[in-house]
Amino acid sequence: MSARTKFISALVFIFTALSFPAVPIHCSVHGSSDLWFSQQLDNDKSSLFGVRFLPQLSIEVPISDGFSLDSEFSLNCFGNLNLTTENIQGKIKPYRGWIRISSNQFEARAGLQKISFGSASLLRPLMWFDRIDPRDPLMLTDGIYALLLRYYFLNNTSVWAWGIYGEDKTKGWEVLPSQEGSIEYGGRLQIPLWTGQLAFSFDHRKASFSKHDNGDITIPEYKIALDGKWDIGPGVWFELMEKKQSGMQGVEKWQKALNLGLDYTFSIGNGLYIMAEFLYMDISPFLKSENDHLEFTALSLNYPLTITDRIFGMFFYSHREGKLYSFIRWERDYDKWSIYFMGFWNPTEFALFGKDNYNLLAGKGFQVMVAYNF
Q1: Domain residues for 19?
Q2: What residues contact residue 352 under an 8 Å CB cut-off, 6+ apart?
């Protein structure tokens, strides 16, 4: 039995033990399923058909006045068929598995969960623990095994603290995975300021070179960030992040990133929503060096055609490469059903949202998806 399986089993045991007394228990089963077809139109044309099923069990138990115990367990069951090569792939893996004790001002959540924060939406320097692709209509991302504590003050100030179990895989912007079994830790302070909020975040982990033929070598990594968002007519925000790695000669020590963004809804027709963001990211052996960097500008447009129909467009421009990434989606929503028609015109490689994330949108092509929520 793997460490992660033992962890989930322990959560189930603890939840069962705590809920043993004769108290009302509320259980619900829901989730989603989707079918999709993707057609690549590049030289290496490929046709893919896929299916996904995400069942979710939610349990809630009141344990005292003002406190409750709840839990969520879900699986990601997916498979795809390459109609060109007749290759079939599939997998069933845990998607979420956590328990939480919470009140109006406090929560402690432990297990396989999503931790996501920050002010930006498209080009996110604070994408530390997730790989949410804004082009994905389902906004799916793998979870991490973590303990998350949050406390909310009455003036809307909040304090976060987390401890994350190190796994031999990357997350967020990471190039190197964490040391297996290590504990990554950090926190976030979020305070109200004028018409919005300002936040400071930090994180520390041990990055591993075990997959780079250098033996069992780890280096400490520190990240700090400042972000804020305000409504001044248009919404404006920024994210500023610095990362330092040390302890190994030849490793690029400093990385810095800056995001600037704004959004506004224009009174055109049913209301045209526009969001724009700019990202500058630099990876340098010295803090003030300009050896290597990337610059992206992103533009997102969202327009409701009717009550059920909406058109959505997203465009990224790489200033360094002079390349444009284009994505357009039309969607129709019912009570439980959603239908998506997507077209994309991109370079064959696109690593802004993780090297393994949503590769179906690389190159040129289209995708059709039908999703059902129950």
Answers
A1: 1-102
A2: 123, 296, 316
The gap from C-alpha 57 to its chain's centroid, in whole angstroms, comes to 21
First to last CA, the chain: 32
The answer to the question of residue 350 being in a domain is no
Domain membership flag for residue 279: no
Average pLDDT of 354-363? 60
Q: Is residue 90 part of a domain?
A: yes
In a domain, 40, yes or no: yes
Whole-angstrom Cα distance, residue 24 to residue 22? 7
Amino acid symbol at 153: F
Residue 89 has a pLDDT of 94
178/24 Cα distance (integer angstroms): 41
Q: Tell me the whole-structure pTM to 2 decimals.
A: 0.89
pLDDT tens for residues 200-250? 999 999 998 765 555 568 889 999 999 999 999 999 999 999 999 876 655
- The pLDDT assigned to 206 comes to 94
pLDDT tens per residue across span 66-119: 899 999 999 999 999 998 888 999 999 999 999 999 999 999 999 999 999 999
Sole residue written with tokens 């705590």: 18
Domain tally, the chain: 1
As a whole number of Å, the CA-based R_g of the chain is: 22
Query: CB count, 10 Å around CB of 311?
Result: 14
In terms of C-beta distances under 8 Å and separation of at least 24 residues, what long-range contacts does 298-303 make, across chains too? 298/122, 298/123, 299/274, 299/275, 300/121, 300/122, 300/134, 300/274, 300/275, 300/276, 301/272, 301/273, 301/274, 301/275, 302/272, 302/273, 302/274, 302/275, 303/269, 303/270, 303/271, 303/272, 303/273
pLDDT in tens, 106-157: 999 999 999 999 999 999 999 999 999 999 999 999 999 999 999 999 999 9
